[in-house]
């Protein structure tokens, strides 16, 4: 087997991690984890030090999102996938409507559609790389749900409360890869939920949500009904514990430490406006490169629908993307593989908030070098 080509060191990024999740962790976050190693890690999550940490995170997220009056930050364990089950038990009264335009929006739709205690969901689908026109008011629908950013395809969807719907209906937004890197007006949502392993540079296994007074009332209403809800999936239990700055069961403290440091960093640099401008700049570099490169093109054809945090770029058939990925990985530039189920000749590049502009310039230079020198 021939030796793998060596990309010139002068072209390499300072940090070669560009994965769409889990994302890169900044050195300052690791330092914070080390500092917590002899004081907070390995202690009870019911005691003051950990509850203080959770409280700081909740306050920091409230500041970052400019939380409207009456909204609360709640949290629970299991990540966004577990939250979908919790939402099916604790948020949907009878029927949900979903916009499905990628892997993760479709998964939440499947959860509510199959839940035996709910009516079949209404699902508007679009092919990967595109998106539905938007939610449509329907009698009997009490939850409208979609991703702000579809991580699998790099397509974004507007976060605007649907007009003409039942005023009691809730708008529930999956923000896992958007939160912390895209602008949002929380007033247009009732539940804006996410796992923190993307822009927030933490680990999975936990979810956070900004929850409106209407959603809090829906959670309480359903908890008082005769619907059976497993305790570990109960959003009423999550609300009760969150108000005490704790979780129903034991959390991974290391992830909370990483998250706290990242939230402080984001707020210290200017919060949501700063983060959204940063990702808009770095993602534009990727899309501009794809449009001027003869063998590449942005996967999402409508520029208004392109994600600022997950960039998908197609290569034409003349490019062996597997070879490109192998050369990059051998040189320490990693995790720009396409989403596995799409099966496309594609790169997927995360431009989350932790990724600086200089590293994107370096990544694109490495790809250009590989296309020119390593595919023959």
UniProtKB/TrEMBL annotation:
As its record notes, the protein acts as a catalyst of:
O-phospho-L-serine + 2-oxoglutarate = 3-phosphooxypyruvate + L-glutamate; 4-(phosphooxy)-L-threonine + 2-oxoglutarate = (R)-3-hydroxy-2-oxo-4-phosphooxybutanoate + L-glutamate
The membrane spanning regions, by residue number, are none
- Cofactor list: pyridoxal 5'-phosphate
| UniProt keyword Cytoplasm present | yes
InterPro entries on file: Aminotrans_V_dom (IPR000192), Pser_aminoTfrase (IPR022278), Pser_aminoTfrase_mycobac (IPR006272), PyrdxlP-dep_Trfase (IPR015424), PyrdxlP-dep_Trfase_major (IPR015421), PyrdxlP-dep_Trfase_small (IPR015422)
Q: In which pathway does it act?
A: Amino-acid biosynthesis; L-serine biosynthesis; L-serine from 3-phospho-D-glycerate: step 2/3
Provide the alphabetized UniProt keywords: Amino-acid biosynthesis, Aminotransferase, Cytoplasm, Pyridoxal phosphate, Pyridoxine biosynthesis, Serine biosynthesis, Transferase
Q: What is its EC number?
A: 2.6.1.52
Tell me the ranges covered by the Aminotransferase class V domain, including all copies.
142-333
User: Which top EC class is given?
Assistant: transferase
Query: Would the keyword Amino-acid biosynthesis be found if you checked this record's keyword annotation?
Result: yes
Describe the function of this protein.
Catalyzes the reversible conversion of 3-phosphohydroxypyruvate to phosphoserine and of 3-hydroxy-2-oxo-4-phosphonooxybutanoate to phosphohydroxythreonine.
Family stated for the protein in its record:
Belongs to the class-V pyridoxal-phosphate-dependent aminotransferase family. SerC subfamily.
Record's protein name? phosphoserine transaminase
Question: Organism, per UniProt?
Answer: Kocuria atrinae
Q: Which gene encodes it?
A: serC
């Amino acid at each position: 087997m021939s030796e793998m080509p060596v990309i010139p060191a002068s072209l390499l990024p300072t940090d070669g991690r560009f994965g769409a999740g889990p994302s890169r962790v900044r050195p300052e976050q690791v330092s914070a984890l080390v500092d917590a190693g002899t004081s907070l890690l390995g202690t009870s999550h019911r005691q003051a030090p950990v509850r203080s940490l959770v409280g700081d995170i909740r306050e920091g997220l409230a500041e970052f999102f400019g939380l409207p009056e009456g909204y609360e930050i709640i949290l629970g364990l299991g990540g966004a996938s577990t939250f979908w089950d919790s939402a099916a038990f604790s948020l949907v009264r009878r029927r949900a409507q979903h916009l499905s335009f990628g892997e993760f929006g479709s998964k939440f739709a499947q959860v509510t559609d199959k839940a035996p205690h709910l009516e079949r969901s209404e699902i508007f689908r679009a092919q990967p790389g595109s998106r539905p026109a938007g939610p449509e008011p329907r009698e009997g629908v009490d939850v409208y749900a979609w991703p702000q950013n579809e991580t699998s395809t790099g397509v974004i969807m507007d976060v605007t409360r649907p007009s003409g719907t039942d005023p009691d209906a809730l708008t529930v937004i999956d923000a896992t890869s958007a939160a912390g890197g895209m602008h949002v007006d929380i007033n247009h949502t009732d539940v804006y939920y996410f796992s923190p392993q993307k822009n927030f540079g933490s680990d999975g296994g936990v979810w956070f949500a900004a929850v409106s007074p209407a959603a809090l009332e829906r959670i309480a209403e359903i908890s008082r009904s005769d619907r059976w809800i497993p305790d570990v999936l109960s959003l009423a239990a999550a609300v009760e514990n969150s108000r005490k700055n704790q979780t129903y069961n034991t959390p991974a403290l290391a992830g909370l430490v990483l998250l706290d440091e990242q939230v402080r960093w984001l707020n210290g640099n200017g919060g949501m406006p700063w983060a959204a401008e940063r990702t808009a700049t770095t993602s534009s570099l990727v899309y501009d490169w794809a449009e001027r490169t003869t063998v590449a093109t942005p996967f999402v054809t409508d520029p208004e629908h392109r994600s600022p945090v997950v960039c998908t770029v197609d290569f034409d058939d003349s490019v062996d993307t597997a070879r490109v990925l192998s050369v990059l990985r051998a040189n320490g530039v990693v995790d720009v593989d396409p989403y596995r189920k799409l099966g496309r000749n594609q790169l997927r590049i995360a431009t989350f908030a932790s990724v600086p502009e200089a590293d994107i310039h370096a990544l694109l230079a490495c790809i250009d070098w590989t296309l020119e020198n390593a595919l023959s």
